[in-house]
Amino acid sequence: MTEQSIATVYVDTAIESLRRHDLMCCPDPNMPAEMRDPNVPPSGAWLAWQPIASTVTDQDIDELESLYCGKLPDLYVEFLKYRHFYELTECGVCFESHVIGQWKEELTRLYDVCRQDFPTGSHLIPFGSHALSDAGPVCFDFQQRHTDGDCSIVIWDHEPLNTDQEIIPLFSSSAKMFESMTFSAKSEIDFLGGDPVEDSEEELIQKGQLLSQFLAIDPNGAGGPAREIWTCWGVTPQATK
User: Fold this and answer.
1) What highest taxon heads this organism's lineage (predicted)?
2) If exposure means fewest CB atoms within 10 Å of the residue's CB, which of 22, 47, 118, 160 is most exposed?
3) pLDDT one-digit tens code per residue, 53-70
4) Dihedral of alpha carbons 143, 148, 154, 156, sign
């Protein structure tokens, strides 16, 4: 897997997982005709959707970057330009819906809502939410840039305002985020959450082994400074035997 293809590989893997589990439906009465799957009949208010080639242009990206006062990571731009979708598999990050004709307004609205309360001196760009809690939006941290133009991924926790816990690390870069989420999308079980009552000992061990592999993908992010937020949901990392 080359770094330039990580984002699109994730999208393809996530959509295949949703399709395999029959999860490509949503109750949107205003679903764009292009995204309506004509091969699947409606089920009550639920309509089947299909991914379509993205219509995002360079001008769209320029307008966002002007609003954000900074360049988006190349992999995220590639992500936006690849496919339109309603949702993808969730592993810590729930991306904003990338619906044709609506996506840019949604990202702009999210930014406008959040930026008035961002910590003074920060440069955070929200692009999704945290799948495991309601802590706050998941953001690019433009102040933590790497030499290749990528940047760290963080959660802005709106609860402990004006404390050193307000910005929580999640991934060391967008590249590691997409690689980690591809690993998760390929897994057949949700290995982040565990319940000693509902899960057998064997299931908890299996989840722990997968979690350990997941953390190893990003030793400077998910497996390092962000380790606590990934290991507090009832699963203990287990070495693979």
Assistant:
1) Bacteria
2) 22
3) 999 999 999 999 999 999
4) positive
